[in-house]
DNA sequence: ACACGATATCCATTATATCGGAATTTCTAT
DNA sequence: ATAGAAATTCCGATATAATGGATATCGTGT
C-alpha cells in the first residue's frame, strides 16, 4: 500500500505487555508470534496480519477493539475534496428495468443516512421492504406523476413537492405518469442519540 | 503462522460491501485495496494486514470492532405521510439573485442533516462561512460547470458527479458555465455520540 | 567503573500478503 | 439459446510480513 494512515497500535500493545510484566520472549511463547515480529510491531515498523493481531489480543486477554487507542474507531478521512465520478457511483437496477437508484451518499454513511437519485419508468413502482425501526424517508419529486403509499396512507406528488413518511413499514413509490419520473430520496435511519 | 483460529471476517466484510451495493472494483477504488485481495479476504483465503483492514473499515464506514461481531437497532413513533408543497418549501435567495436554495429537509432535522436544491446563476458563486466542526458537505451536480473550492483544494464537477468535502472551513461553489447550474447539496453535521 | 544476565533490536532467509492482468464465471439482454 | 458485458476468481510477479539466530542495548549488582 502506498499510504498508511491507520492508527498506531504498537504503543498500545507495548503498554499492555508491560503492564503484564511480559518480555518479548514470554509474549512470543504465549502468542506464537516471534519476538522479532513483536518488536517490529511495537515500534510501528511492521504491519501485522489479522491472524497475528488476533493471537496477540488472545495472549494479552484484551478485546480486539482495544487495539485502537481512545476508542475512536472510525475517523473522517477526506482532507481535500473527494470526487466520485459517475462511473464510480453505485447503481441499483430492478431486474425488470422498472426503476433505477443512483446512490449519491457515501458508502461510509450506509445505515445512517443515505440519499439516492430515483428513476421510475412510466406505470412502474418501486416497492421497498420495511427498513430498520425509526427509519424515515423524504422524497422530493423532480417530475409530476409520483405517488407514495404506505400502510398509513397515500400521497401524490407534484414537481418540487416533498413527502416525508415512515420507512420502517412497507412502502412503495409509483410513477402514474407517462414519462420517466425522477426524484430525490433521502433515507434517515434512527440515530438514537 | 502454523495455526489460525482467528474469527472469520471475510463474510462480515462481504455482507457490508453488498449492503452498500459495491462491487469489488468500486470498493477497491474506495479503499485502495486491490480487487483480488478483496476477493481472497472475503473468501477467507487471505490473512489481511492491519493496514488493509483499517482501510476497509474506513471505506465501508464501519467500526473496527464490527469486524468481529455485529449488532444494532431501536425504535420510535408513528405518523402518516407528511406533504410539503412547493409553496411551503423554504427558500433562501441571495440579495443579488446570484443563487437560490430550496430547503428540502425537515426543519426538525436542522443542525443534524440538511439538504438543499441549489441553483446558481452563470458566473456567480455561493459562498459559505464555516459550519460547525466535523461538518461535511456532499454536492452532486445536476448540470455541468460547477466548481467547488475550499481552503484545502478545488474540484470541478461534471453532471452526475459528486464532491465530498469538509464544510467546517470556508467553502464556495461557483458556476463557471453559461447556463444556470443546479445541484443537490447535503450538509451532514458531526454526529459522534 | 566493570561484568553478566536479561531484554530488545538487527540481519539474512523464508513464507506469504498484495497486486495487475488474464481467465472464468455470473448476469443481462436479445 | 446465444452473445456481450459485468463481476469475480485465478495466476504469475513482486513487495513485505514473519522467523531464528546474531548483535546490541539495558539493567542491576559488586
Please tag this protein with its features.
homodimer; 193 residues; alpha+beta; 434 Repressor (Amino-terminal Domain); Jelly Rolls; 2 domains; 4-stranded antiparallel β-sheet; 4 helices; 19% helix; DNA-binding; RmlC-like_jellyroll (chains A, B); Cro/C1-type_HTH (chains A, B); DNA-binding (chains A, B); Transcriptional regulator with XRE-family HTH domain (chains A, B)
What is the gist of this entry?
2 copies of one chain form a homodimer. By secondary structure, chain A is α+β, with helices and mostly antiparallel strands. Chain A has helices at residues 10-19, 24-31, 35-42, 50-60, and strands spanning 82-84, 91-93, 99-103, 113-120, 125-128, 136-141, 146-150, 153-157, 162-166, 171-175, 181-188.
Write the layout of secondary structure elements.
Two copies of one chain form a homodimer.
Chain A lengths: L9 H10 L4 H8 L3 H8 L7 H11 L21 E3 L6 E3 L5 E5 L9 E8 L4 E4 L7 E6 L4 E5 L2 E5 L4 E5 L4 E5 L5 E8 L5
Antiparallel strand pairs in A: 2-3, 3-4, 4-11, 5-10, 6-9, 6-11, 7-8, 7-10
Helix pairs in contact in A: 2-3
The structure holds a DNA duplex (30 and 30 nucleotides).
Keywords (chains A, B): DNA-binding
Protein name (chains A, B): Transcriptional regulator with XRE-family HTH domain
Organism (chains A, B): Aminobacter niigataensis
Detailed description of the structure:
Chains A, B: This is Transcriptional regulator with XRE-family HTH domain. Chains A, B: InterPro entries: Cro/C1-type_HTH, Lambda_DNA-bd_dom_sf, RmlC-like_jellyroll, RmlC_Cupin_sf, TransReg_Diox_bact_type. Chains A, B: Residues 13-67 form the HTH cro/C1-type domain. Chains A, B: It holds the Pfam family HTH_3. Two copies of one chain form a homodimer. With 193 residues, chain A is of the alpha+beta class. Chain A folds into two domains: 10-71, Orthogonal Bundle (434 Repressor (Amino-terminal Domain)), CATH 1.10.260.40; 86-188, Jelly Rolls (Sandwich), CATH 2.60.120.10. Chain A has four helices and eleven strands, in the order H-H-H-H-E-E-E-E-E-E-E-E-E-E-E. Chain A has helices at 10-19, 24-31, 35-42, 50-60, and strands at 82-84, 91-93, 99-103, 113-120, 125-128, 136-141, 146-150, 153-157, 162-166, 171-175, 181-188. Chain A has a six-stranded antiparallel beta sheet with strand order 2-3-4-11-6-9, with no helix packed on it. A four-stranded antiparallel beta sheet of chain A has the order 5-10-7-8, with no helix packed on it. Chain A starts with 9 loop residues before the first helix and ends in a 5-residue tail after the last strand. Chain A binds a DNA duplex (30 and 30 nucleotides) through residues 1, 23-25, 33-40, 43, 46-49, 52, 95.
